[in-house]
Amino acid sequence: MRIGGNSQDRMWPVTERMPVGAVWAPSPAFWTGLGRLDAAAGGMVDVGLDLAHGSPAAARAVAGSAARALPRG
């Protein structure tokens, strides 16, 4: 499963104020649901990061949310 392309380029963490062009912020419930889906499906999940907006802090926040929600490996 891959979260990328337009979904990734418009994603922003809920912990930061959204810039122009970012249109969705995955809630904690989104990450929990994604983790459950991944565990049930037994597949790999690839979550891309939006680096176009120039915020390393936002990219770290998204990566952290994904890492906490998804099973190791």
Sum this structure up briefly.
The chain is 44% helix and 5% strand. 14% of the residues are buried. The chain is mostly helical.
Q: What can you tell me about this protein's structure?
A:
The protein has 73 residues and is mainly alpha-helical. It is built from three helices and two strands; from the N terminus they run E-H-H-E-H. It has helices at residues 6-9, 28-41, 56-69, and strands at 2-3, 46-47. A two-stranded parallel sheet has the order 1-2. The longest helix has 14 residues, at 28-41. The protein is elongated and about 35 Å long. The two termini are 14 Å apart. 14% of the residues are buried. The model has no long low-confidence stretch (mean pLDDT 82).
Molecular shape: elongated
Number of strands: 2
Give the SSE order as H and E letters.
EHHEH
Helix content: 40-55%
Secondary structure: elements and pairs:
Elements: E1 2-3, H1 6-9, H2 28-41, E2 46-47, H3 56-69
Parallel strand pairs: 1-2
List keywords for this structure.
two-stranded parallel ribbon, mainly alpha, 73 residues
